[in-house]
Design a protein that fits this description.
235 residues, membrane, four-stranded antiparallel sheet, transmembrane helix, transmembrane, 4 helices, 40% helix, Flp pilus-assembly TadE/G-like, alpha+beta
């Protein structure tokens, strides 16, 4: 009786052993598959980080060049009505390519901008950047991951923080008002041609509810780019 029971228990254990092996193998494969999914997710997240940084880098570079363009326009005495357009990025051709910065930031984050992957947009100014990770997901239990790279796309927008107000003439430091150079005020003057003189005016901006006055005679106080324009990722 005892010997028969022992043989039965031994037989049951022998039949259960393959089930245990199969279960352990299944759990191991599941763990490796989850690890592969984690690898893919990490690669994808890294690609998105690189795309975000690249798009923001291009937009911030454009913002810096746009500020300089606005400053140059005021310094050179161009038509001040153009200021409103420049604040919105209209009619401005940056001397440097902002997409070069997109590639630099992508490279710093382990990715490359794909061919044609930096696309400017307007109204508002924006940069849409598509990147591809430099490294693949890597070997895993899922076939093909060793050559699989992640791609990601991001869009950054440059928007004005300020609106332009009509220019206000600077006060006459001499206090002579509209008198001619000969002091008579008869409009005849002294025969000299004043047509080549540029009347510089202050520029009034309203920046997010705050009044900012730009005096062409004191451009050392010209606002920073971040005070004139915002840069942010778009959905």
């Amino acid at each position: 009786m005892t010997a028969r029971r022992s043989r039965r228990l031994a037989g049951d254990a022998g039949q259960a052993f393959p089930i245990y092996i199969t279960a352990v193998a299944g759990l191991l494969f599941l763990a490796l598959a989850l690890f592969a999914v984690g690898q893919a997710g990490a690669t994808r997240n890294g690609g998105q980080t690189a795309a975000d940084a690249a798009a923001l880098g291009a937009a911030e570079d454009f913002r810096g060049q746009l500020r300089k363009g606005l400053l140059d326009a005021i310094t050179s005495g161009e038509v001040l009505e153009d200021v409103a357009d420049l604040l919105n990025g209209r009619g401005f051709d940056p001397p440097g390519d902002p997409c070069d910065q997109a590639q630099w930031f992508a490279g710093e984050n382990g990715a490359d901008v794909v061919d044609g992957g930096c696309v400017p947009g307007y109204l508002p100014v924006s940069f849409t950047v598509t990147v591809r990770t430099s490294k693949a997901v890597g070997k895993s239990v899922i076939p093909g991951t060793e050559t699989k790279h992640a791609t990601a796309r991001a869009k950054a927008v440059v928007e004005p923080r300020c609106t332009y107000e009509e220019p206000t003439p600077l006060p006459d430091p001499t206090g002579d008002g509209d008198k001619d150079e000969d002091g008579t005020g008869d409009g005849k003057g002294d025969g000299k041609d004043d047509g080549d003189k540029d009347e510089k005016s202050v520029i009034d901006l309203v920046c997010e509810g705050r009044n900012i006055t730009i005096d062409p005679e004191h451009l050392d106080l010209f606002p920073d780019a971040k005070d004139l324009f915002s840069v942010h990722l778009a959905d």
